[in-house]
Design brief:
The chain has 192 residues and is α+β, with helices and mostly antiparallel strands. It is built from 2 helices and 12 strands, in the order H-H-E-E-E-E-E-E-E-E-E-E-E-E.
C-alpha cells in the first residue's frame, strides 16, 4: 500500500513538466525578449489595443495598423506597420522591406509628431494594401499644385507592385510606392 505522501509526490512529479522542458521555456523567454526587441527599429513599439480602439478600425481584421505585400517586386512579402515612438509622443509608418541576400531593412515613411502637451491617445493614421494597377492620384509629395478633382480627370500612376495606402482615419490619404528606378519609397497624395 502506498502512503498518502508517496501518492502525492508521484502525482506532483507526473504533473510537473520535465526539467529540460522548463529550461527550454525559460531560455525561450529570456533569450527571445532581446530578439523581439531587435525586430523593431530602436525606440519604436507596436500600438496597444487601446491605441487602436477607434471604431473606424472595426472593419479591418488588423485594425488598419499592418500590411503584408510585396512592395518592391522581389517576391517576399514586406511588412508595413504603424508604430508608436517610445521616446516622445508620435507615430510613424515603417516598412520592413526585403533586400538582396535575404536581408530586411526598416524604412520610416510617414511620421506624425504631437506637441509635448498632447496626451497619448488613439493612433491617428491607418494603412492598407493598394494592389498593383492603374491608380488616379492628386500629386507627388513635392508638387506645388494638386488635382483633387474627379478621379477620371486626375493623372494616373501605373503600379507594378503593391503599395501602401496611408491615411488619416475618415480623412486625407496618400500612398507610398517603391520606385525601382530611384530605389526608394515615393509618396503621392490621393485625397485631401
Amino acid at each position: 500500500a502506498c502512503s498518502f505522501r508517496a501518492r502525492l509526490t508521484s502525482n506532483v512529479r507526473r504533473q510537473m513538466p520535465h526539467p529540460i522542458v522548463i529550461a527550454m521555456l525559460v531560455s525561450a523567454v529570456v533569450l527571445g525578449a532581446p530578439l523581439r526587441a531587435q525586430s523593431l527599429p530602436a525606440g519604436w513599439r507596436f500600438p496597444t489595443a487601446d491605441e487602436l480602439s477607434d471604431e473606424a478600425r472595426n472593419d479591418s481584421p488588423v485594425r488598419y495598423a499592418r500590411t503584408e505585400a510585396d512592395s518592391n517586386g522581389d517576391g517576399p512579402a514586406d511588412l508595413a506597420s504603424l508604430l508608436r515612438t517610445t521616446a516622445s509622443d508620435g507615430e510613424a509608418l515603417w516598412d520592413h522591406l526585403s533586400e538582396p541576400g535575404d536581408q530586411k531593412k526598416w524604412y520610416r515613411l510617414g511620421y506624425v509628431h504631437w506637441p509635448k502637451d498632447h496626451r497619448p491617445g488613439p493612433m491617428a493614421m491607418g494603412i492598407a494594401v493598394q494592389p498593383p494597377g492603374v491608380v488616379p492620384y492628386a500629386c507627388f509629395d513635392s508638387a506645388k499644385d494638386c488635382n483633387f478633382g474627379p478621379p477620371e480627370l486626375r493623372p494616373k500612376l501605373k503600379l507594378r507592385d503593391s503599395a501602401i495606402d496611408y491615411f488619416k482615419l475618415e480623412s486625407a490619404g496618400s500612398m507610398y510606392f517603391w520606385s525601382r528606378k530611384h530605389r526608394r519609397f515615393v509618396r503621392v497624395w490621393m485625397s485631401d
